[in-house]
């Protein structure tokens, strides 16, 4: 099972085609998890600015991760994709 749901638009895609945001289970750090080698609770997003903005607007990411999302990370995501 490698399909994941986008927190922005709700579409299901292969996780390889998505941005993965993970909360590290030991440190609680929230980060963009591109190498998939770190484990923790994760949220997936399309590589799409609309999805990223939607997910932040609806506070989907911090609800799923149960952690505040650093402004820095939010800015980085919106600027990069
Ligand atoms: Zn999406």
State the strand order across the main sheet: 4-3-5
Helicity, in percent?
25-40%
Name of the CATH superfamily = YlxR-like
Which regions have little confidence, pLDDT < 50, spanning 5+ residues?
Answer: none
Overall mean confidence score, pLDDT: 91
The CATH class designation is Alpha Beta
Strand content: 25-35%
The total beta strand count reads 5
Rg estimate, integer Å: 11 Å
Instruction: Say what the CATH topology is.
Output: Hypothetical Cytosolic Protein, Chain: A
Shape: globular
Give the biggest sheet. 3 strands, antiparallel
**What is the annotated CATH architecture?**
2-Layer Sandwich
Q: Please tell me the total number of domains.
A: 1
| Small molecules in complex | zinc ion
Structural class: alpha+beta
> What's the SSE pattern?
EEEEEHHH
End-to-end Cα distance, whole Å, is 25 Å
Number of helices: 3
């Amino acid at each position: 099972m490698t399909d994941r749901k986008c927190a922005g638009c709700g579409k299901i895609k292969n996780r390889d085609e998505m941005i993965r945001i993970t909360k590290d289970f030991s440190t609680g750090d929230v980060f963009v998890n591109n190498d998939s080698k770190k484990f923790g609770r994760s949220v997936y997003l399309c590589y799409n600015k609309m999805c990223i903005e939607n997910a932040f607007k609806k506070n989907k990411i911090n609800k799923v991760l149960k952690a505040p999302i650093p402004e820095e990370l939010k800015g980085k995501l919106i600027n990069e994709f």
